[in-house]
Fold this protein.
Amino acid sequence: MPTILPPSRPQQQRAESELKLRANGVTDGFALLGVRAYYLKSMGAADKNDRGIYDDAIFLITPSAYVTYNANCDPSVFRTRIATLKPGKWMYKIGIHGMSKPPEKRYKALVQAAQVVVQRDGAADERGFFGINIHRGSRNSTSSLGCQTIHPDQWEAFITSVEGELKRAGRKEIPYVLVERTV
């Protein structure tokens, strides 16, 4: 089986992450930053943003925290009408992932707090509530039908840190800024 997880966590410096946040309207330094194709040159097909591997990055940035996570910001596969979250600033909150699944398969994750825009394979952009969550992936797959996923070895630390930072700041929602890697 091919490697779907890079050998290390993302190494982007806080100043660069904060610059990307400010460019997308986050001026208080409190957000999640997703960088699609973060490992563009070192994972998967050369110079191509791949699906099905953790070649992206998500950063938790607050006044009291800066933590990096291996992530997937793409659907796992190409399939007609599968959704890909468009770059931009989107609002998320703590909620439950897997509401259509049996109760024992549901778990705490970040869920949409407002509408997002997605590009569907083979179709036009759409705006709405689509269940584009930020949730736990798996070891053998990124487990995404359009969601943003964190490798399972990093998931508990991620959701615990995000929830703790929201409580510390007295907030219910966190902006999620998704950008494309610039070479």
Q: What stands out?
A: Residues 152-169 form the longest helix (18 residues).
